[in-house]
Description:
The chain has 347 residues and is α/β, with parallel strands linked by helices. It is 36% helix and 13% strand.
Amino acid sequence: MKAISFRKMEKERYSQIKAQLFSPQAQRPGLYNKTPRDFCLADEYSYENLYRGIRDSAITYFLIRGIPWHDGLKAGHLPSNHLCCSQSCCVNFLFPLVKRPDLIKSIFGFWYHDMVEALPIDADKPLTDDSYPFVAFEWTGKPDADYLNEGVRKGRKPTRGANFTSADFVIRFREKDGRIHIVLGEWKYTEEYGKTYKGSGRQGDTRRKTYIEFFKKKGGVFSANGNLDKLYDELFYEPFYQFMRLQLLAQEMEANSEMDADKVSVLLVCPDANNGFRNNVASDYLKKRFPGEDVLGIWSKLVTPGKFRSIPTEDFLARILNVSAADQEWVAYLQNRYGWSYPAQQG
């Protein structure tokens, strides 16, 4: 019998715990694809998809920067009503750190041992109090940067969070040797991908032409991989296509010293329990080249050592619970909302 997917289990869990997390009005089924769904909030209450302690500030942050919410309501100005939304999940975990360099060091420093101090994202717009955020969202690079020439292809400037390669979040810190390290983050939740090849057809040809020069760059993050033409062809399956673009964005940010960075790397945060995502290796070539490896194992072997890291969401939450005792309401919210306990082997 086929195992129940992580996404389906989360939808069912939300249907059961709505009353613990949301107002009575918001608990009514919301429309998704024109159909009422129990795992969605009532449309006019989609803002409750965000933790109340950061709700207004996060919505303002996105609005001022022209960042659309994925599947957002009110023309993208409000969050999606879908409770399995990874963007809302990312914001719920990380927006409370926007003004908390101490917590960034306590949480991320557990994995980045050389971190000495978190630094502001001073290429972003200032917050409403004129300070700069220590975490930024949907980051494409400093204003007017078009590191991957995607704007040239589309005939317009890059926009954050839509139609251009964007990091779900970005942090910046100083290391023990004084070097500045930027981390571009990709945040996954219940994502599932099929086997669609994104490198074919007219649109696929455009995609392939856009990134090939960066992919084959001498000394780049993929340069140690022998036959780069063959490898490039095989990365147009999800989630590898997303990973590749974000890794190339990091490569070019580093080459251009984005915000004085000496190093730019990629971090993926995703649930251990979402085995459907982790095992979605659609390329037969990659399966044969890396037998027995999942998506993350393969990716870590394809890029330059030190340029990619992954953290299970479960471990990230455990770290927050360990160091954030003073933020009891936020911690309790994360634990209640994202404290699933499914075994990782569920697929």
